[in-house]
Design goal:
Layout lengths: L2 H29 L2 H24 L3 E3 L11 E3 L1 E2 L6 E2 L15
Antiparallel strand pairs: 1-2, 3-4
């Protein structure tokens, strides 16, 4: 057998192996519903990104940290510093960014 015949046979074996691999992969993905789970997770991610963008555009609204408690976080209204206009916690005496007194 000459070299070109051996290369052709090797190419054919590799090609058939790739096709068998792709078919087996699709069957396994269908069986385990991986494609459906992936599309569901991608939808959840897009929804969370939209919510994050909406929250970033909403001035003066945040949530209190939940800590170790398993309770629903209550909304906290954040005030803006008069000097630097960054958010300041309600009841804070000074801005933690620029140090301006808050009245």
């Amino acid at each position: 057998m000459d070299t070109s015949g051996a290369l052709g046979l090797l190419f054919l074996i590799v090609l058939i192996s790739i096709v068998v691999f792709l078919i087996c992969r699709e069957v396994l993905c269908w069986y385990w519903k991986i494609n459906e789970q992936l599309s569901c997770l991608m939808g959840i991610r897009e929804t969370l990104e939209e919510i994050q963008q909406q929250l970033a555009r909403t001035p003066g609204v945040g949530t209190a940290p939940a800590g170790d408690q398993a309770t629903v976080a209550t909304p906290v209204v954040r005030l803006a510093c008069k000097r630097c206009e960054r958010p300041v916690e309600h009841g804070a005496r000074f801005c933690e960014y620029c140090g301006a007194p808050q009245a």
